[in-house]
Amino acid sequence: MYRPLLRLFSQAGLAVAEVPFFGKxxxxxxxxxxxxxxxxxxxxxxxxxxxxxxxxxNQLAAQSSYIAVPLALATRLAEKExxxxxxxxxxxxxxxxxxxxxxxxRKNGCFSLRHYRVLKDTxxxxxxxxxxxxxxxxxxxxxQSKALVVLQARTD
Amino acid sequence: MPLPTNPRPWxxxxxxxxxxxxxxxxxxxxxxxxxxxxHIASYYHKFCAEFVGSLGxxxxxxxxxxxxxxxxxxxKRFVKDKDTGRTERDALGRKRKGDVxxxxxxxxxxxxxxxxxxxxxxxxxxxxxxLTDADDLDDLVQKVLxxxxxxLAAIPDKYRKYEEYAKKAGRPVGALSIPPMCxxxxxxxxxxxxxxxxxxxxxxxxxxxxxxxGGLPVFAMILxxxxxxxxxxxxxxxxxxxxxxxxxxxxxxxxxxxxxPTALQVVFDSVTELSKGGRxxxxxxxxAFSLALHYAGLTGFACGICYGERKLSTQxxxxxGVVLPRYYIRRLxxxxxxxxxxxxxxxxxDPNLVCDCVICRRKxxxxxxxDTESREHFxxxxxxxxxELRAGLSQADFAAALDDAFQRYCDxxxxxxxxxxxxxxxxxSGASSP
Lengths: 156, 434
Description:
Chain A has 156 residues and is of the alpha/beta class.
């Protein structure tokens, strides 16, 4: 799922996987070069509700927070659960060959400058790191490698 | 110190970090007793003796002997880089282990010795064969019981000066010593009831302990995973009763309150079985499900203050990482991380979730509470939950409250997971009162 998502958010500039955030990890975090704007994405194949909750928590630190699920599931959610997504300002991305925003995320009153700064500081540390290929990210996640703290991702 | 006189369920808190002492003192009316792990009683002897002495509550020492049947690597601490404070890693990226943790080292060297020390020196785990010889077994039982009975029972030096006052008041000085409420024989994990497993050894340990307990009650620790309990809880209970156990400490290995209905039922049935003989049954590492187990006949349960409500016996002793402060939501019988969940959920906005404990009245928004406040809130709320049970809350009413909370909040994505409420309610609705 990551490759289409990286293409979707390619304009953001920085892409980081598995970002630690208060005991959890944000699956994918995209940021503008100045880190002024952050986009958090939680990915799930089936259990979209747990991704939704995490996405709602990510709103504390990221201006835009999405869940990304397979396109068929996303289409169904866009039809049946649109109110829920709009009520919580969480965005929905469907992922097939390409990734597509079905419901846009909105910044809401939960955004906390303190939490944003925590995340921003974490991201600053990654800038000195050498970018890893998407395969490295996928492998590390598949093997639940504890060595994986912050990885920069690129699509090549 | 005799067993608690309060009606059941008894709540025992497990002493963890030494900075918890203030919680224990400030809220001494919210619990019935204290569990002190042997390595802490050994390493922080003076602190623990003063703690127990000043608290004046029933206590017992968990001998922690199961750890010696685990991979000896688990007794060792991680090696930290002196400059960065980070754990060092080997060439393969694995965390490096160093010496045996000092608290266990002291317990092994100075307190237990014998076969425990020999196995540690050999760098191997203890096996049932190490206790085949009756002398070795007796030696272990004697040392463990002596440790439990005397380690914290002596009057701390700090309080010696009061002996004079006691004499003048005509009170025997011996009354100032504080023996534990019960003794726990050495115990090891029951993974099978076959003769070569630990079960038969555990029984012999209890049997010998009964002859050496000096009149104190002997509570047998039953450490077994839910699969074993599902098959053999009745026989295990009967076996321990036959060797004279005065009570049971049940530790379903790795069991947590949020587990599937099958595991919940197994633990519920195990408590029912064990309590049939009228002996006290306490659940170790018990979470909020222990409240439901009251209706199975549970006498009491033990946990840490807002943590330690599940434990796997094979878990590494040297746990790394920060435990984030959590806030317990009484209605949902679950905790949320203060920094993220509590802040995002805005609990104070929902009158049904608002707590009226003294801490929450002072700071109504849980997201604003710090670790100390949230743990004090936990102690107060847990005490209130127990008071409800003691006041005679019926099984049906308890189940209805759980179900009501589930129905009300099952569609709120931020409050998930709360499936445990439905599972507990279903179990209590289907089970009959003992």
